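pipeline: protein-struct stage 2 | run 1193 | Thiamine phosphate synthase
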Amino acid sequence: MKYIEKLQYITHDIPHLTHIEQAQLACEAGAKWIQYRCLSKADDELLKDINAIAEICDDWGTTLIVTDHIHLNGKADIQGFHIEDMNADFIALRKFVGDDITLGGSANTVEDLIRLANEGVDYAGFGPFAITETKPNSYSLLSLQAYIDAANKLDQLKITLPVLAVGGIKIYDVEAIMQTRIFGIAVSGAINFADDFIEAYQDFYEAVKL
């Protein structure tokens, strides 16, 4: 069973902080899991970012996950990949990266979650919970009841997949979301655009761990 953190911080292309600066601040705030999400750069630029962030993560004992770009496996100190394509063949992807690499996937329905579990992912992001500017999409928003129903269905099937709520989550949403028995939360915008990045991260951390 691989280590999966309950609060997963995701970097984004934003005007006021580079991905490296975001990672540094997150680690200073106590982050134990950073997902580098950059879909706008070529491989050489990606690797520059990833190598710099990997050094920061190594200093702080933080897990580094990369969104997509699975072809970079083995080219940098990356602990895992999160694949956003809900139709990806995770059986093939697992064969490609091997058993030691953490593999996460995105889901919008209980059926998605079941498939991900059957295809060997280590965790799933389940959303979107709310409208998010950092990752616009056309998927249906998920209610608190959808998280409860998903937890119940996975229990019935004896599936122990760690599921994290994701998508537009604000600090005031966390208590109710965690009461649905979901494993954890992935967050980006509510921290990246807060007046105080470190304080915002720590507020989320406390809320998720309660």
